[in-house]
Design goal:
It comes from Pedosphaera parvula (strain Ellin514). This is Type II secretory pathway pseudopilin PulG-like protein. The chain has about 220 residues and is α+β, with helices and mostly antiparallel strands. It has one domain. The chain is built from 4 helices and 11 strands, in the order H-E-E-H-H-E-E-E-E-E-E-E-E-H-E. Strand 1 and strand 2 form a beta hairpin.
């Protein structure tokens, strides 16, 4: 009696192939998030380092100017708070340019939509900045929001071009930079990487009634 194994072998081969394909897809599903995280990690580290330098520069400048940040500095013909507009807030960083050394640190590595300026004067403006500035941050408010990623959002409270964040505000992060999270520089120089719930806790712990932030123009 002749026995034909061809059909059985062919079916078994197809089954093996399907199993291999399924295993490959499973492995890809496990590996891709890890690869994405590995790619984001250097960007996250560089962003934190940028904000650390920004915080140090603000404090160094304030140390030479009566412990006053540029946002509150007033002298003949100059009023720091008058610069609190999306198209003018770059002046705060221009004022501390000697401490910053380079405008490159004002661009978050994850902010692919923006390019750093080559210097602080000829081609420097708010479109070359990835970070907001906290108008209520002072040398004696260590928990105040001094600066942070520009993808922080608030849909409820606006005062001219200054965004007011309170404990009752609907606060969150957009997907623009760090996938619904972000980095915040506090008045004491520390950097907090926080999610939506984390940034709400930061705002509630500043000790301020309002937290006015000015963002670079879009």
């Amino acid at each position: 009696m002749k026995i034909n194994f061809g059909l059985s072998n062919r079916a078994f081969g197809m089954m093996e192939l399907l199993i291999v394909v399924v295993v490959i897809f499973i492995l890809l599903g496990l590996l891709l998030p890890s690869v994405t995280k590995d790619k984001q990690r250097p960007e996250q580290i560089n962003c934190v380092n940028n904000l650390k330098q920004v915080g140090l520069s603000f404090r160094m400048w304030a140390g030479d100017n009566g412990d006053i940040y540029p946002m509150h500095f007033r002298t003949n013909g100059f009023n720091g708070e008058a610069l609190a507009y999306p198209w003018a807030m770059y002046n705060y960083f221009q004022i501390i340019s000697n401490e910053l050394n380079t405008p490159k640190i004002l661009i978050c590595p994850a902010d692919v939509k923006r390019q750093p300026a080559s210097n602080f004067f000829s081609n420097f403006n708010s479109s070359a900045i990835s970070y907001f500035v906290g108008l209520d941050a002072r040398a004696d408010t260590p928990q105040a929001l001094l600066a942070g990623d520009r993808n922080l959002t608030n849909e409820t409270s606006y005062r001219q071009n200054v965004v007011e964040f309170t404990t009752n505000s609907i606060t969150g992060w957009t997907d623009d930079l760090h996938q619904r999270s972000g980095n915040v520089l506090l008045g004491d120089g520390s950097i907090q990487k926080v999610t939506i719930s984390g940034v709400r806790k930061l705002i509630s712990s500043t000790g301020l009634q309002t937290n006015r932030l000015v963002f670079p123009m879009k």
